[in-house]
Amino acid sequence: MKQFKEIREKLGKRRPWKKGWDPTEFKQIQKDKKLKKEVDKYIKMRAGHKDVTVKQAQKQLPYLLKHVNANYGDGKGGDVNDTQFMNAVLFYYKGMWENKESVNEAKRPGKGSAKITIDWDHGRPDPGDVRDWRDQGVYVVKAKRNELEIKGDKEDLITWLWDVYGWDMKDIEREYKELYR
Question: Is the entire prediction scored with pTM above 0.85?
Answer without folding.
Answer: no
